[in-house]
Amino acid sequence: MSRTTSLTTRRSVLGAGAAVGALGLASCVPPDSERAAGNGGGAGDDGAGSALAPDDTSLEGTEISILDDNTNLVFKEGLIETFQEETGIVVKNYEMANFNDLHDRFATAFAAQDASIDVVMTWAGWSAEFGQAGWLQELAPEAIPEDLIRPALDAVSWDSKVFGLPKFASVQTMFWNKEHYAAAGLDPDTVPENWDEFVEAAKATTVDGRYGYCCDIGNPAGAYQNFLRSLLLAGGELYDEDWTPQLDSEAGVEGLTKMVELLHLHKVMDPASLQITNASDLIEVFSQGRTSAVFNWPFQWASATAEGAATSAETTGNGLIPGITVRSASIDGSEGYAVSSFSQNKQAALKWLQFASGATAQKQIVEKEGWFPVSQTTLEDPATVEALPVVTTYEQATEYAVQRYGTPWSNELDQLLSVQVFRAMNQEAEPAEALKAAQEELLPIVDKYMG
């Protein structure tokens, strides 16, 4: 199948409403391969070419295996048992692995048509890459709950097809230490409303070896996310309407320049930011009072207000991320589950997806872990706001640009872009030079997929 027909056209895909971002075994799945054309086949009752819909099959005693990332402990700490009691399905194996290691494991298993894994964790980039390869089972409309919020559904979709169900929604906002702000003579209850105000606050709170700002640029995905957020804050877009990359656009250069300035000109960014590889590590830096501000996912609130933290609900501020040329913008980090096309237990696996996005699991994900819910019903529940006050900021954030740009080439983009981001951050190249190099490297990759 040709590249053009395998992924339709640039314009129609861009208009599909999919999200957008990560790297792998041997980069991504070649778009002109047999698997990428949807001909790889999938074991089980439903082939990769037919959408999976729930049926009335008895699933009592059916066994499934799940390979997850290490984000949501609530499943292992009780929800698996609840699922088994409610459905009669047995979770034979539930493994949690580091997110940074999962892509290659999935790619290896899928390439071998491994049927031992029924359910995999996914996000926008992997849904696009593995979905277009025919490795994730497409879901029929009747398998999808009606009240899912759009950003969460985007995390499991690509090219107008849904390849899974979300387990949590996530958008980055700003968290600041009110005690640090007050000690610096700043209003502890007021979030900076623009970039200049943010820089001044970061300068004022950089004292005694403690920095006013910290982030997580220490791996390819982190470098991509931090750059993308800065580009959006500068009013840019990562692609134009025909999927032509805009890495070296005026907004891209300005965004990366602001990142470099935080580290080298203003000296308010903790140099450790270049080694921090996971948002889970970043939350601890803030929660232990070792930095004054972070742009992070909603679970930062749960960590900052937990027993043993140096911060608390009273000393943690939350608000919109201040923009560079726009009021605000952010990136999406929603995740979900998908059924492997090679699973022999697709109906049972689908039950797990529906359980994870259902009310019982969502309540625990919100209240115990601090992630946003995936359903409008749970989002509007007063108990959600009570358990997670940052939901209010989330609703404000959605009034501005919130993107991730998950694509089949996300892994390749993460790799090549991170090299250039690090060159700029280490002052080995000017931001414009670094982004021009990344742009030139990305163009043929996008063309390879989009035709």
UniProtKB/TrEMBL annotation:
Record InterPro entries: Bact_solute-bd_prot1 (IPR050490), SBP (IPR006059), TAT_signal (IPR006311)
Gene3D superfamilies assigned: Periplasmic binding protein-like II
Annotated CDD domains: PBP2_TMBP_like
Domain of life: Bacteria
Annotated Gly residues bias: 38-47
Signal peptide boundaries: none
Region (Disordered): 36-55
The protein's name in its UniProt record: Sugar ABC transporter substrate-binding protein
Species of origin: Brachybacterium ginsengisoli
